[in-house]
Amino acid sequence: MPSAPDRYQQLKLITLGEQMAAALKAQDWDSVGGIDQRIRECLQELSAAETLSPELQAAKQQLQQLYARVLPAYAEACEKLRQLLLAHVDYAEARSAYLRTGLLQGEK
Fold first, then answer.
1. What's the rounded Cα separation, in Å, for the pair 70 and 106?
2. Which of 18, 20, 33, 87 is most buried as measured by Cβ atoms within 10 A of its Cβ?
3. Exposed, middle or buried, 64 (CB in 10 Å: 0-12/13-18/19+)?
4. Residue 9's CB: how many other CB atoms inside 10 A?
């Protein structure tokens, strides 16, 4: 049976993993960032331990599997945002060129 601190850390990792999964499903990237920070802090606390209980190792493994889904989803969301911003820039440049052309034609 894991010690009380190990059990607490295990439950903490499981809870953070569940929160991360929910934020990922909702594509709430602000929440993902905050949860990621809390997971990082928790893992840093665990790094001081010489050995981890099998339950804690399993919880860490589950988080690794979750991050295997989070990272590509986040990269995809970033790419969609980049494409959207490029479309706005292209539109603004085209509009500006169109207005300049109209002004030049009006000068004749």
1. 54
2. 20
3. exposed
4. 23
